[in-house]
User: Fold these one by one.
Assistant:
Number 1:
Amino acid sequence: MKKLLALAAMLAAITCATSAAAAPDAAKVEKTYSTTCLACHGSGIMGAPKVGDKAGWKPRIAKGKPALYLSAINGVKMMPPRGGNPGLKDDEVKALVDYMVAKSN
Ligand code: HEC
């Protein structure tokens, strides 16, 4: 019986760890945003759509998320690929776009 309980506890721990890894880490996204994207998207320099500027984001959001993901990953005009941070994975860039859009919608 004790062994069974230990096994159940272990399984629960594994399940928790997996779901924590799958859930987007909001704090991490926010931190990466401040270190990588805020420089341009906080102030709106070089024509970057300012985060929180709903009117500025409206026509971009209208293009659909997949188009925005592509722009953020590949770059567009003065927007450098991955915001100039080649270490970011596609999923991380997408989470950053989601974060910016959620704040500007
Ligand atoms: C060096 C400045 C700079 C940095 C850093 C930067 N951006 Fe941009 N971003 C821009 C500019 C400028 C535009 C507007 C491009 C244009 O003319 O359409 C833009 C546009 C965008 C758009 C809209 C693209 C579209 O298709 O309308 C998204 C999404 C975006 N950036 C995401 C990000 C993310 C995510 C980061 C951080 C990983 C980031 N940007 C970092 C300058 C920057």
Number 2:
Amino acid sequence: MNWLIKLWAVFVSYMLGRSGKPQTQGTGESGQITTGAPATSETPPTLSLPHPEEPMNPAQTVANMDIGAVMTEWLTQRNVPQENRDYFKNGIEIEVYDAWPPDKIASGTNPNTPAMTWQVGNKRYLACLAKWLNVGVIAHEQAHNSYALLTEDEKAEWKSVYLDIRESDPLIKYLFKINPYGLTNEIEGHAEIGRYIGQSMSESLRKYYPKLF
Ligand SMILES: [Zn+2]
């Protein structure tokens, strides 16, 4: 009967091996996982960002690019509501440079910063280096412009909801694992989720992106 015991030992170690396999995070969540096959223990679902990072384009300059076209591409790809498109395209002052001008460098802008937003009075500004102007960078910066529309109470509420969901949402965990920039603070986290996850973010987060959804 030794062979039977051996067979049983082989079977048990096989089953232990199967259950001990590392699981891809997020199995079982719906609507946020891209997988080509039904999820089973044989084919764990793999996570992927709905909007992966676009490469910087060193050949793109103020002279040879169409800023309006990139803005339109962003509005379309992210399905920004029609009634809010004018706000994001024309209500915000947009500046594009081949290199940051001396006054911006003098006021502390890192020469390698791809883009930024700021506010003077009630007016929002968005500036970007031409080589970095793409849909993803626009999505990040426009998330900042959307965040600026939140009240102080809503910003505090976002911080608490965000710090909580960041520990449990598989796609957000995955995003910050491969690109931890969003962990800088809750405002950069807001912009990075808007950029890379966009419309696929959890329903509970969408209300913190006024005018974008
Ligand atoms: Zn930012």
